[in-house]
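Hi Prof. W.,

I finally got the ABC-type quaternary amine transporter prediction working! I wasn't sure whether to trim anything, so I left the full sequence exactly as given:
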Amino acid sequence: MSDGLTLRGITKVLGGRTIVDGFDLEVRRGELVCLLGPSGCGKTTTLRIIGGFLRPDAGEVLIDGTPYTHTPPERRPTAMVFQNYALWPHMTVFKNVAYGLRLRKLPKREVAERVERVLASVNLTHHIHSYPAQISGGEQQRVALARALVLEPKVLLLDEPLSNLDAKLRVRVREDIRQIQQRVGITTVFVTHDQDEALAISDRIAVMNNGRIEQYADPHALYREPETRFVADFVGTMNFLEARVRSTGQGAVVDLGDGVVVPCAAPTALLDTPGTVGVRPEDVQIVADGDGAKARIVRVMPRGHYKEIVLDLGVVTVRAFVGLEQGTEEEVRVRFGRALVYVDDRLRRGSPTAPTGSVAAS
Ligand SMILES: Nc1ncnc2c1ncn2[C@@H]1O[C@H](COP(=O)(O)OP(=O)(O)OP(=O)(O)O)[C@@H](O)[C@H]1O
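And this is what came out:
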């Protein structure tokens, strides 16, 4: 039996619709896992089932191997931080954080010690006597986090905790949360629909779609090897091209039809029937030599330290991220550094039609 959180076959039907559909998930002790997916895919429902606010119709919730499926929230070793932190406006930071411990009737001295310790860990000691209205949104969110951590739960649950903050503050507070989570070493499930947020703070990400997990992987694998077209589209930017991937004497090419052929260094498979090919914008490369496909730059968007450009290949346009010094001319030649091949919306690796060893499948 593993340490951490285990969900087995969790199913929930609400209003006649299956919202969570046979969901399995293992979160190792001390790990931060994001549930990432579009609005309505069942993230919050799953989190509420872990916290005990909703009962599943089927399946089990285990924490450190102990079943808690039918235990009410207050008797579970979990604590939840909500989107709208729900601090008491008439109570000081100290009293807000102490509230849960007072309900548990702990001695006054122990309450004070634990509150002071947890406020120090979220860097809020100087605001111990402030009221919520006297501190910033980011600080209020750290109070909400402290209020959960002070209960010393085994599993911390965060439901879109940053959605009330502006873009800059979101980035800062998410880094704070990640740092505190790692320092405390607490098993954490974090719900977000923001892929950037998930990629930045997670040990692993479960991408959800229609109440199911599409892929469960670490951020790098999820970005580089999205297993389904849905994940490839949801995480990061992707050019999807209807194309054939063939091997030639010189290597592989992506054949876009009408005679447009783009050299490609590393397709995940060869596919001599039409399929969908995914190319990340950073894998669209402008080359100096003559063997790249001809392209015309139709749009240039400065992005600070790099440029986003749109290239017209004649039959399709593709988006590319290139260095500031590149893409200054109107006509260029391009190749693909890497291409992901999807058949029936699933990533294809290798190919039965390709001679062994003819493809660099990285
Ligand atoms: N009590 C309920 N009765 C009927 N349908 C519900 C109920 N609660 C939630 N739903 C539906 O379940 C679906 C999933 O909701 P959930 O809140 O889990 O999604 P989510 O992925 O967290 O989305 P969001 O990011 O918008 O919060 C939604 O379509 C929602 O309308």
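The chain has two domains: 3-233, 237-348. Does that look reasonable to you?

Thanks,
D.
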